[in-house]
Every structure is written in C-alpha cells, then in structure tokens.
Amino acid sequence: MVGGQDKYILTSMGILCGVCVWHATVPLFVVYGVDTARTIDKCGLIISASTYFLFHVCFFLYIYFVVSRLTTTAHFYFTSRKHNNNNGH
User: Fold this and answer.
1) What is the rounded distance in angstroms from the CA atom of residue 65 to the CA atom of residue 56?
2) Cα(20)–Cα(43) distance, rounded to whole angstroms?
C-alpha cells in the first residue's frame, strides 16, 4: 500500500503532468480563433484550479481521519499492553 506522503507526491505529479499537457495543447485551439482559445483556456484554468483545490481538501480530510484513527488505535494498544504488563501478563 502506498503511504500518505507517497499518494500526495504521486497525485501532485499527475496534476503537474496534466497542466503540462494542457499547456502543450492550448496553442492548437488558436486555429478556431483567439477568442475561442481564450475561452477554452479559461475553462481549463477553472477545471485545473478546482481539481487542485478539491484534491487538497480531500487529502486533508483523508489524513485527518486516518491519522486520528491510527493514533487512537495505537493509544489503546499501548495502554492495554502497559496495563497487561503491570498485571503480570
């Protein structure tokens, strides 16, 4: 399983590659007119920015809930081990 930091880096690289591909293809829309190319570029900007923002919100929520669950689980595990060791088990 890929760790949280690895997921973040891989997804960020995917977003960066998408932006690079977008910048490589936008000049192809100039044949339809400069106004059309600008409109398409604005739509691409809105979609890219929304994707970037949504990814960060989802990733923050994922890390918050997974880390808090793991921290709680680890706390109960170590607390129960300490309690069992004090009772001679």
Assistant:
1) 14
2) 16
> Do the Cβ atoms of 37 and 29 come closer than 8 Å?
yes
Containing domain of residue 50, as a range? Answer: 4-86
Contact (CB, 8 A) for 26 and 40: yes
- For residue 20, the one-letter residue type is C
Specify the amino acid at residue 44.
G
Q: Tell me the pLDDT band of 62, cut-offs 50, 70 and 90.
A: confident
Instruction: For residue range 65-89, list pLDDT tens digits in order.
Output: 877 776 766 666 666 666 566 655 5
- Residue among 64, 50, 58 nearest 15 (CA): 50
CA-to-CA distance for 53 and 76, rounded, in angstroms? 35
Q: How many domains, the chain?
A: 1
